[in-house]
Structure prediction request, 155 residues.
Amino acid sequence: MKSTNTKIATLMIASAALLGGCASTSSNPYNTGSVYGSPSTAAMGYGTIDSIQVTRGSASTSGTGAVVGGLVGALVGNQVGSGSGRTAATVAGAVGGAALGNKVEGDRAANSGRDMYQINIRMDNGEYRSVMQDSVYDLRVGNRVRIVDGRAYRY
Prediction:
């Protein structure tokens, strides 16, 4: 019995560490400042808005749902069967619980009601950049803009 509990504890710690590596480390997921090109050139520039696309919500998750789901699934799976069947049920419960927990957390993030705007900009030097913002205020296609710290501002 003690070796089974040790295996389960080891499995839970390993799955938590593995799933924790999938977590987002972004402190502000709503202004990612993602651009085509290197981040060092994204600090400032001038251009014209080529297009604006709207995306609903943000499906990024922290990984908490996966970890909690994996732990609960492992505990439930451990109650089934005995011997190697119990170990298999524990592993299956942990994997299934992690997948379900991550899905639930992702659905909540996607349904948060926040629209994101991908603003595609043709720069004065001929490059194209794409900036993600949580609002566009008065920006329209064809406007001259200035990019400062990954955000587009009307110029």
